[in-house]
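Researcher: Next entry in the queue.
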Amino acid sequence: MSSQVRGGTRWKRFALVMVPSIAATAAVGVGLAQGALAASFSVSGQDFKVTADQLVGDDLIQYGSLAEGAVLGSKEKTKHPVTISGFSRAEITNMCQSLVTPTPIGNITLQLRTGNKGRPAVAENIYLDVAELDADAKFDQLDIGVAVGDGSHTTKPVPGTVADGGLFSQRAKKATLTNVRQKAWATTAGTFTLPDLKLRLLSGNQPCYQDEK
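Model: Structure for this entry, 213 residues:
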């Protein structure tokens, strides 16, 4: 997936997509030896599911954008509307992330679990390209309609920003999300520390949660 333009923010832009490819497994293994994953690779193109008991994030920014994804079985690309959610720092408790990929021998699920046993996963400078989100949410010092990248929290969206043209945008000093169920197209971060990481390749369709009927 091509890297996103992050709407004028001053945070360092690194490329890390934690799950969506079996090819990422080797890179994850290298990171385990150091106890944290630093930005070094970018794999994406499919949506994946994430659950967490809780996510507590500092310096939230959210705005509308487009993510580019692959069309399975072809070289075509397609655009998907997403909400970009960014945090300067986030702690994630009991996280599960999964990607189901069709193969000639049937579906294979790549599943990653971390952040339990009283040790949350910790991400620095993290962005999530979210297509769907269900959670209980609390926002501290919320500003809706602010210009992305403006630290004053006073100005409205201006021409040339991703929030221009009526697209959604907001900021908050702190966000607390509980009972999180999320479908996303990419996760990028400066560093992602994953305690007690368990990564498994499972036969069949075994995502972190099933879609509601």
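Model: The CA atoms of residues 22 and 130 lie 21 Å apart.
Researcher: Noted, moving on.
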